[in-house]
Write a sequence for this structure.
């Protein structure tokens, strides 16, 4: 067990020290720079594809692009992304604190449920929520006497905001929970000894210490919302991604151009965020004794109510609808409609394997970038960061088509990878690299260099310091990132459809094709299996570790 | 900064190791797969004839709807068939992006629009004459770029609680009547609605089509992302009417869903009852030889067409196979079929839909 040699770690103490290091910190080594540049080049492939195709389409953009319409769609994208970011950050942070730092009843249950809404594909999640809460839907039917004359319609901006907030807060939850699990409780302890109430402790001590993790997740939410198609299409809110999908076949030049606009906007957002982060206090972590548990007192039950509301609306409610579809098919459907569970075994295994593979590959690839960008503040770091993170705003379809294009345009040896598992994993890593990187940056940034110095003084070699000092401290953060990538991969659709080997089937593909062809029973069954598999893997990969730290 | 070099190298190695492992996995993968991977020498070029090669099918039709037939074909002929299932539009985009290195030999599409897209890009080969002759002339392309496999009919689904029979319109053109204001659900981004509009353009011309779309838009229809969502919305009573393909309601019945919805078929010959054909094409990059042609012919065999009629509740397109009793007979109730070749630029259709403001 590593303990902080200084005894009392704290933002107040480490801040000036850290600032100096970030500002004039040494140059990154040549190898690190080389690897980071190589990674950036790969991650820029989708952008390069868009540029090449748009230029190839030639001039006359005015003829193909409806400017007014596109600008309105862009405005919609940004407005929705901003609003969802705010709520997702609130929900994610609140839940993370409740499940890691308080004595809220059923704490473990909430911890297991909280990350899972991320794995519900947004098109089916939105459909299930609609089926439940829309006027004339299941709730209306089962409880007509609720006293509500007509339930509010879930659609447009409000509907998209509601649904996407529920399905994206895990992007904030996982990094923040990981951060809280590895924070030293000493400051909180002092605050409490000084008589601060839980809410005050949260505001004045916990929040500042988790700020980097909250930011890390919130930017991911923003970019995800910009890229999402499934939910906004269901809920009738015309974002730029909807415009891209609508014109992808009939007006390809417009779709490509709008894709490029999306990419540029994303790069700007990422660059701005990095600028804004420049003067943020950096908090260092230490693995210490058991984390401090705040007794909630009379807030126990309101807190439980909040956790329940989120769990029910984001996960249990949609799952209940999916379960209802599934059972209805088994009970009332004819032979053809009845779901075949045996058919789902292979896809379930494939889905889990792909999720784990993509998570491992992604973390391995982004870790050097995380070192470059979190330890050194260079222009190059900014560029690499933008390349990896900004790409997350692109719809999966564009990332997949770019992968197709470059693999087949490239030298002969790249074409041999076409539609193989490695290529599919690479596409996932490019698409979801942002998630791994944001989490890894938080993890790397939180390792106190003093520990390194101390270990070096004691004669530990570099390898050994990495293995025994840095990695153990980074593990919760890296696992949170791996968890995000894994869950995203397991529900991924466009790249999976285009790039998987033909013999390869995933659960998300099953859910989608069933939904597309009005096979409700199959939709529900496959989606339930998907959530089940991801629940087990999340527990094994992410949560069990956090529990051990307790 | 000598001190930081070692872990940097270590991290880089981790990354390379990750990629390396992935690459190893690939070698095994590629070695085990067929000789058709792009970039390798085309050893399997004539393989189709001998039955030893691989036939690669990109299918925009659901596995549930066509998978069993493709398996039968593989068993009967000994040809190794690899099928990639996806949405019709995405499969067409995939073939377009792959260009002349596409592994695809046969493309099966759910609706004609995507076929037009590939044809415009010169990416389709030819279905042999004798296969084309199996279906009526309006159900295949004159130049053989596609041949219809099955038909789905456009219908109006309505909520039986909120709609009385005398409210049901004879023609889809009646939907511009103010009586339908705020009561209709459509899916303007969906292929089948776009194909319906394309059909209207062929039949009525762009001016009348525009007038219809604007009239529909004036009734402020609610938009959905597809047929399934419209059917659900009509069931909830969110909208009273919806324009969908007939197939979805039949699937709902098969699922045992007890919803207050029913299908209304428009008057014989009305544009609203347009038949949309799912089609098969041979891709320009076909390197499976005659195996591709054999497959298309197989899908138009009596055996396959009977399968479609019975199992997927679609209209068979060859002579001598009858549609299900539950469907209105093709020649009586729905007589209008559009030769989509007359359409020219399908992007025009999309432009008309967008200009009408139907999708907000």
């Amino acid at each position: 067990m590593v303990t902080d040699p200084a005894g009392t770690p704290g933002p107040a103490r480490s801040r000036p020290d850290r600032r100096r290091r970030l500002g004039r910190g040494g140059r990154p080594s040549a190898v690190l720079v080389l690897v980071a540049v190589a990674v950036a080049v790969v991650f820029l492939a989708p952008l390069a594809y868009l540029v090449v195709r748009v230029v190839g389409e030639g001039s006359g953009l005015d003829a193909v692009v409806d400017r007014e319409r596109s600008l309105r769609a862009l405005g919609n994208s940004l407005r929705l992304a901003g609003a969802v970011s705010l709520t997702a950050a609130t929900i994610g942070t609140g839940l993370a604190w409740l499940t890691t730092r308080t004595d809220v009843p059923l704490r473990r249950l909430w911890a297991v449920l909280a990350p899972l809404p991320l794995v519900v594909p947004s098109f089916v999640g939105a459909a299930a929520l609609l089926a439940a809460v829309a006027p004339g839907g299941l709730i209306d039917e089962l409880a007509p006497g609720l006293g509500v004359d007509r339930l509010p319609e879930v659609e447009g901006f409000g509907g998209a905001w509601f649904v996407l907030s529920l399905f994206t807060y895990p992007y904030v939850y996982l990094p923040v929970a990981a951060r809280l699990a590895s924070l030293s409780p000493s400051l909180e302890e002092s605050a409490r000894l000084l008589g601060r109430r839980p809410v005050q402790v949260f505001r004045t001590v916990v929040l500042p210490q988790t700020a980097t993790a909250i930011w890390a997740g919130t930017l991911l939410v923003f970019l995800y919302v910009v890229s999402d198609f499934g939910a906004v299409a269901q809920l009738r809110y015309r974002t730029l991604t909807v415009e891209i999908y609508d014109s992808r076949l009939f007006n390809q030049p417009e779709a490509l151009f709008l894709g490029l606009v999306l990419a540029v906007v994303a790069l700007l957002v990422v660059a701005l965020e990095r600028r804004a982060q420049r003067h943020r206090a950096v908090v260092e972590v230490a693995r210490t004794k058991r984390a401090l548990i705040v007794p909630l007192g009379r807030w126990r039950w309101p807190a439980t109510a909040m956790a329940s509301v989120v769990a029910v609306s984001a996960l249990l409610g949609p799952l209940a609808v999916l379960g209802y579809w599934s059972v209805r098919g088994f009970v009332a459907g004819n032979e053809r409609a009845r779901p075949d569970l045996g058919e789902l075994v292979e896809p379930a295994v494939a889905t889990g394997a792909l999720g784990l593979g993509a998570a491992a590959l992604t973390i391995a690839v982004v870790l050097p970038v995380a070192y470059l960008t979190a330890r050194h503040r260079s222009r190059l770091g900014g560029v690499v960061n933008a390349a990896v993170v900004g790409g997350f705003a692109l719809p999966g379809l564009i990332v997949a088509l770019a992968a197709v294009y470059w693999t087949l345009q490239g030298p002969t040896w790249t074409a041999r990878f076409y539609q193989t598992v490695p290529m599919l994993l690479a596409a996932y890593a490019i698409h979801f690299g942002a998630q791994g990187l944001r989490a890894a940056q938080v993890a790397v940034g939180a390792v106190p260099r003093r520990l390194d110095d101390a270990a070096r003084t004691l004669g530990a070699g570099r390898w050994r310091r990495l293995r025994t000092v840095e990695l153990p401290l980074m593990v919760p953060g890296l696992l949170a990132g791996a968890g995000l990538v894994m869950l995203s991969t397991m529900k991924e659709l466009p790249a999976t459809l285009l790039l998987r080997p033909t013999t390869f089937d995933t659960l998300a593909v099953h859910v989608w094709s069933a939904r597309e062809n009005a096979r409700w029973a199959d939709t529900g069954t496959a989606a339930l299996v998907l959530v089940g598999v991801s629940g087990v893997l999340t527990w094994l990969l992410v949560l069990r570790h956090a529990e051990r730290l307790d | 900064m000598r001190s930081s070099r070692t872990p940097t190298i270590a991290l880089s190695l981790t990354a390379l190791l990750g990629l390396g492992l992935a690459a190893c996995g690939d070698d095994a993968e590629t070695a085990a797969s067929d000789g058709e991977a792009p970039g390798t020498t085309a050893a399997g070029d004539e393989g189709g004839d001998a039955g030893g090669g691989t036939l690669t099918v990109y299918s925009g039709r659901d596995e549930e709807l066509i998978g069993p037939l493709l398996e039968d074909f593989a068993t009967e002929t000994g040809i190794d068939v690899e099928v990639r299932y996806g949405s019709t539009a995405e499969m067409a985009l995939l073939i377009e992006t792959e260009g002349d290195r596409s592994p695809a030999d046969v493309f099966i599409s759910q609706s004609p629009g995507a076929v037009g897209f590939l044809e415009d890009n010169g990416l389709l080969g030819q279905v042999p004459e004798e296969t084309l002759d199996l279906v009526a002339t309006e159900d295949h392309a004159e130049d053989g770029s596609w041949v219809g496999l099955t038909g789905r009919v456009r219908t109006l689904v309505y909520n039986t609680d909120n709609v009385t029979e005398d409210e049901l319109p004879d023609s889809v053109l009646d939907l511009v009547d103010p009586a339908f204001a705020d009561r209709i659900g459509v899916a303007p981004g969906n292929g089948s609605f776009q194909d319906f509009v394309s059909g209207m353009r062929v039949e009525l011309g762009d001016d009348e089509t525009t007038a219809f779309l604007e009239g529909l838009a004036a009734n402020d229809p609610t938009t959905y992302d597809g047929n399934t969502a419209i059917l659900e919305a009509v069931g909830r009573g969110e909208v009273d009417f919806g324009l969908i393909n007939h197939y979805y309601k039949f699937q709902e019945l098969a699922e045992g869903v007890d919803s207050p919805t029913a299908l209304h078929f428009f008057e014989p010959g009305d544009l609203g009852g347009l038949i949309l054909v799912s089609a098969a094409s041979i891709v320009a990059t076909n390197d499976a030889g005659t195996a591709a042609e054999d497959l298309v012919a197989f899908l138009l065999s009596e055996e396959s067409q009977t399968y479609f009629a019975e199992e997927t509740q679609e209209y068979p397109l060859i002579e001598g196979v009858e549609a299900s009793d539950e469907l209105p007979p093709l020649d009586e109730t729905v007589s209008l079929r559009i030769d989509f070749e007359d359409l020219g630029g399908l992007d025009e259709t999309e432009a008309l839909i967008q200009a009408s403001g139907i999708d907000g």
Observations:
- The CA atoms of residues 182 and 220 of chain B lie 5 Å apart.
- Residues 1-52 of chain B have pLDDT under 50 and may be disordered.
- Chain B touches chain A through 87 residues (CB under 8 Å).
- Chain B has two domains: 47-151+275-325, 152-274+347-356.
